[in-house]
Amino acid sequence: MGIESLLADITATLGRPPAEPWPAIVAATPRAAFLPDLVWVRDDNGGYQPLDRASEPEAWAAVVHSDEPLVTRFTILGDARVPLSSASAPSTVVRLLEAAQLTSGSRVLEIGTGTGFNTALLCARCASGSVVSLDNVAELSVLARRSLRAIGHRPTVVTADGTEGWPDLAPYSHILATCSVRYVPIRWLEQTEPGGRIITPWDSAWVCYGTLALTKQADGSAVGRFGAHGSYMLISTQRVVAALDDVRTLGRAADLSTTRLSPWAVAGDDLDAQFHLGLSVRGVWHSWDTSGEHAPVRLWIAGTDEDSWAYVDWDGNQAETFATGQFGPRRLWDEIAGAHAWWSAAGRPDAGRYGMTITSDGRHTAWLDAPTTTVPLVGTPAPTPRPQTGRGR
Q1: Torsion (CA) 234, 235, 241, 247 in degrees, nearest 10
Q2: Cβ(88)–Cβ(68) below 8 Å
Q3: What is the pLDDT of residue 1?
Q4: Active-site position among 66, 88, 147, 308
Q5: What is the DSSP letter of 304?
Q6: Phi, psi for 272 (deg, rounded to 5)
Q7: For the segment 23-73, what is each residue's pLDDT rounded down to a tens digit?
Q8: 280 catalytic, yes or no?
Q9: Cβ contacts of residue 173 below 8 Å, gap of 6+?
Q10: CA–CA separation, 337 vs 265, rounded Å?
């Protein structure tokens, strides 16, 4: 148990050794130095269980030196207790850093200091004086700064709104987000030098999946492609509460029909399908209901504006036809089914075939394979999250 086992775990997850120079940098950066004595790990019921270093030192050390995400702090969002800060799985951290294509001379703005572990890796790669890190929680900034100094790093750590960037030390060659976004803030474009890169995990109301790597153009725009992986907590300024109960109270006077498209085809294990739906059908989230109140399994679909909703039911027997109901000005199931049909006709592309162009005034256009093939959009872009727990950073 130790750094050798951690590097072995990272290699196993990636299916290859980390790209140079990250193995040596990870080996020289103690993850334990950035973690509190009390952390939370996933349990078997979709929740979290605490792990205290004082009472379970061996178990604590084992999970710290494994490729596991660890929650370090919670907050209350609506009526839900959700993670506020976490230490991402080290393989997730490495993937993000590899995508950034950093050099020893890079000048980096990190959005989301969190525990400071990722910041330490940046400092080891680029030198402390070239790294600026922002977090909007003052206590996290203080703790991260203390941990960084304890191992010899002195980056600029600031408590600030990450969507505004940090213009005082701009421009940057790289802006690296350790939280996901539903749109790239305009300040990030403004504070990146021409030819510089913006790397950010991606989120939509439908699914949190993918990482966007943009290059700043001479005219102030940015163009880049998505990659697979990258499940991070949504940046706090793009979060709102959307309660499933709000949808259920609207559950009346639905237009009834049937569909042959399985709900699992659009909200199951196929993350590439979900990624496309999130890009194409804007401002729509989903939630599985297995309570049996309405059907053995129901997929709820709702607009973040709460004016429209839909459902798809599985009756426990029929596997080819599913009952549907739709309510409101948007026919949400029709939108989802149409977007899925477009994706299927395009050859069921994976996330890596998609890209994004962002103009200098912040307009986002998603495309497939090349900017000339734009992804058809339904609905109005809405920077609001689905009602599910946050993810690590």
Answers
A1: -40
A2: no
A3: 59
A4: 88
A5: T
A6: -70, -40
A7: 999 999 999 999 999 999 988 877 899 999 999 999 999 999 999 999 998
A8: no
A9: 105, 106, 107, 108, 192, 193, 195, 196, 197
A10: 10
pLDDT in tens, 227-253: 988 878 888 776 655 555 555 555 567
Query: What is the rounded distance in angstroms from the CA atom of residue 192 to the CA atom of residue 200?
Result: 13
Q: Cβ atoms within 10 A of the Cβ of 126, count? A: 21
Does the predicted model carry a pTM greater than 0.85?
A: yes
**Is residue 323 classed as helix, strand or coil in its secondary structure?**
strand
CA neighbor of 190 nearest in space, from 211, 159, 217, 210: 217
Q: Residue 80 contacts by C-beta under 8 Å, 6 or more apart in sequence?
A: 387, 389
Helix and strand numbers (H, E) in the chain are 11, 18
The tally of CA atoms less than 13 A away on the side-chain side of residue 101 is 9
Residue 11 burial (CB < 10 Å; 0-12/13-18/19+)?
A: middle
Tallying the residues shown for the chain, one arrives at 393
Residue 70 DSSP symbol: E
Rounded percentage of the chain residues whose pLDDT exceeds 90: 78
Which residue shows structure tokens 């496309």? Answer: 276
- Kind plus residue range of the DSSP H or E element containing 244: helix 244-248
